[in-house]
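[stage:ingest] chain + small molecule (4'-deoxy-4'-aminopyridoxal-5'-phosphate)
[stage:ingest] validated
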Amino acid sequence: MRKFSPDWFRQQFPALHEPNCYLDSAATSLRPQAMIEATQAYYQTGGTVHRSHYSQAKETTERYEACRQQVAALINAADANQIIWTRGSTESINLVADAWLAHQLHPGDEILVSEVEHHANLLPWLMLAEKTGANIVRWPVNAEGELEIEQLALRLTSRTRLVAVTQMSNVTGYVPPMADIIVLAHQAGVAVLVDGAQGIVHQATDVQQWDADFYVFSGHKLYGPTGIGVLYARKDRLDEMRPIQGGGKMISHVDFNGYRLLPAPWCFEPGTPNIAGVIGLASTLDFHQTVDWQAAEAWTLKLADHAAAQLATLPGITLFRAAASPIISFVFRSLHSADLFTLISEHNVALRVGQHCAQPLMQALGVHGTLRASFAAYNTDDDVEKLVKAVTFAYQLLTEEE
Ligand code: PMP
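[stage:predict] done
[stage:export] C-alpha cells:
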C-alpha cells in the first residue's frame, strides 16, 4: 500500500484532468482510470458468466466470482456466498423487503425506520406495509438531527420485525451509533438492516463485528461503476430468504412439475447479470488495496472542516453538518437554495440542491431543501477555495441592494 498522496490520488481520476470542482460525491463518486480500463477490457473480450467453458468465459466467471471474495473482505463477511449482486442499494433493500420480510409479515407487525433515512430505505417498507397491513414506526431525530438510543428502546415492541437505519446520513453525514443499535434490537429479537450507501466509502465496515443482519451498498459511491450493488445477509437470514424472481442459472433442475433452487447467492441472481459492473467493481477494489484509506479519509475530513469553517462565517447561513462529516448541507435565511445553486453552478462548482431523497429529514430539520457539498479524497484546497468563493459571490449578488 502506498502512502496517501492527494496529488497521486487525484491523477487517477480522468474526470479531474480538466479543471473541475466536483463536490457531489455523495450523489455519485468519480471513477479511477483502472476501473474504466478494466470495464473496457471486459467489453473488448467475449463471454458471459456461469454458462460456457471456452477460456474467455471461464476467465470472466472466475473474475466475477472472485469479486465476491473481495467484497466479503471489504466488509468482513464470513463467506463470499453471503454477497448477492444487485443493481445498487435501492434494489438490495427492496430485495430484503420482498425476499425476506414479505412472507413473514402479518397485519399489525411493525417496521421501525429512522427519520434520517434516504427514500431508498423508507419507500420499500412503506410499500410492503401497504401490501401486508404492517405498520411503519418512525424513529425520530432530536433537535440536532441525531438518533437517540433511548427513543429506539421506547419503540421496540413484540410486534417489531425490523429496524432500518443508515450507516451515514446523505444530508448531514451523521453516523448513528450502529453497534448500540444492533445490540438493543437483537436483545428485543429484532433484525437490523444497515444502509451502507454513504458509509462504505468513509468508514471501515465490519458486518460480523456489528452482527448486522443485512448490509447494503452501491458500487458507484465507492469509486466504482453504476448499476452494481451488494446485499450482504447474515447466514441465518440468507436461509430465510425466498427468491422473488425466476429465470436462467438459478436452479439445478426444472421441469413442468417444479424446480430445485441453487444455493444462495445464485438463486437470487436469475438472468444474465451486470458482468461489466462486477468486473469494474473488482478493479475498483483492487485500486482500494493500493490506498491508505485512513489517511485518505483524514484528508477528506480536513478539507470538509476547512470548507465548513469558512462557510460558517457568511451571514445568514445555517450549516447542517454532523461532527467530522465529509458532507455539508447548508441554507441561507430568506434566500432560495435553487437561486444560489444556479449562480454557484455558473462558477463550475458541482454541488447538489434539493431534498436529497430525504424528505422526512428535511421536515424534521425545518427546511424545504438544502445545498449540499460532499467531499471525497480527490478534492483539494483549491476546491474549498472555489466553493467558498462561489457561495460568497452568489450570496452577495442575491442580497445586493438595488
Ligand atoms: N441510501 C443512501 C444513504 C444514499 O445516499 C443513496 C444514494 N443517494 C441510496 C441509499 C440509494 O443508492 P442507489 O441509488 O445507488 O441505489
